[in-house]
Amino acid sequence: MTDAHDVLVLGTGVPEAVLSAALSRAGRRVLHVDTHDYYGADWASLTLTELLAWGEQHGAHVAFPRDAHLPDALARLDRHYSLSVRPALLPAHGPMIEALVRSNVAAYATFRLLDRVGVYDAAAQRVDRVPSSKSEIFRHKHISLADKRRLMRFLERALGAPAASTAPPEPLAHTLDALQLDARLQRAVQYGVCLAWNGEETTDTALARTRHALAGLGRYGDAAFLVGQYGGAGELAQGFCRASAVQGATFVLGHGIQSLTRVGDRWELRLDGVDETFSAAQLACSAEARAAATGDAAPIVAPLAYEHLGIVVADAPIDWVRLGEEPATLETALLVLPPGSVAGVDNAVMVLMQGEGTFSCPKGQYVYYLVTHAPHSDASRLQGAVDVLMQLLEPAEQAREPGAGEDAQPATPTHAAPVPLVTLFHARPIYDRAEVPQTTPASVVDTSVACPYGTQRSSLFLEPRGPFQRIPNPAETLDLAVEQAEHAFWRLYTPAARDAALDAAAARRQHHDPAEYQGRGGAEPDLTRAPPHADVEFLAPRDEEDS
Prior knowledge:
This protein has 14 helices and 20 strands. By secondary structure, the protein is α+β, with helices and mostly antiparallel strands. This is Rab proteins geranylgeranyltransferase component A. Belongs to the Rab GDI family. It comes from Malassezia obtusa.
């Protein structure tokens, strides 16, 4: 094992894992260290006992509502759980999908389509199913023909090129009012299609996100999003780390950091239980990881907000029939509780359901991830949302009349809400970090800093993304993680190298696009000319011999 490396990466979260794979593929000698004994860091997919340890370490509130402590029946199934501490949906079109393909992680990562999206109507105590395609819109029984046409006009606007305007951003609610959609359909569009957090969402950010999602429809099936199996994001992080190791990176997990110091022009690292001293020219990690490793004070930055996560393990699925939908056996679903559905919660609560078919829980159980954000970190904020969710699940065993036979139906259906097997609540600060421009390779980069708005955000995805909301939702975090990784990658090089890679990516796009040759009399593509490449690229396209 060599002790001299080009780049030291701390933490195996998704941004760091993608960065590690890209650096190794570019020929850099990478040392990748994580003090945890599992991959994923704060994106990890954990067994039940690992989740309990994670919760204790991170100040999360964990409970077993049916028992005082972890029951033996669940402990015996420990390895059957793969619970994500950063639940996410994968857009079928975007930087993460491209990164999975180029790194070959897609060859062994597995996914399911998102089966259904529903929006909760608190007043009517029902869930309105959100159509996922044009054909579903026109087959929908509860949307009038006039509303179907209005809805199609909105989707056509979303799919069109963004219009340049100097006018102040218009709230999405005003745009939907102008379309004369009824309140029920407006709610479905705002929270089920646009996945807005609240009524303050602007039309331009909502349309940009909707355009990005709709572009993935039909690519892998009749859904705009995929759900990663075995916990999702943590499995992807491990896959990118594996791809990095295949390219020659050195990984050290499960050892505490004794010291990390800057000596001359290199970083020197000593680990608990390892005699060797490691060194690297550059360091890549989050600001928090750097502060913990060096012992320096962490930068004082006020959180933009707090992301609230709830994890609920239950033995009942959503009762779609009672909620007015047709019977269905679903392994994945997204349920949105709009603002006002839960007392004390000002933003939408997004609930991602995963069943046994996602390999995240044992047979007969379901995992529900609840995500919202708020200005404060109070741990009980999502308890009301869990109470609402429990009322939407298939009821627990109903009481029968005394002396009635086993086949007798309950005299008075009670729809008693099931009690969760496990609950976890955690609040994570969300920061809005900025950084100074650079012209030379940096000795240290913050992997949690996103690419500034207004610049090309990813060479993997050249299509314009448009404006985006400051607090991402679970359908945006994976793509943003790739963009964070690429931003860090280019800070380890130079802006000139980044520009050359973007030019090469744009040239390759034209090189492969047959439409470039349509209408040119007699012009044919030069099939013998190799696609253009730059000297340094972020996850360079795989050559045939790499496949």
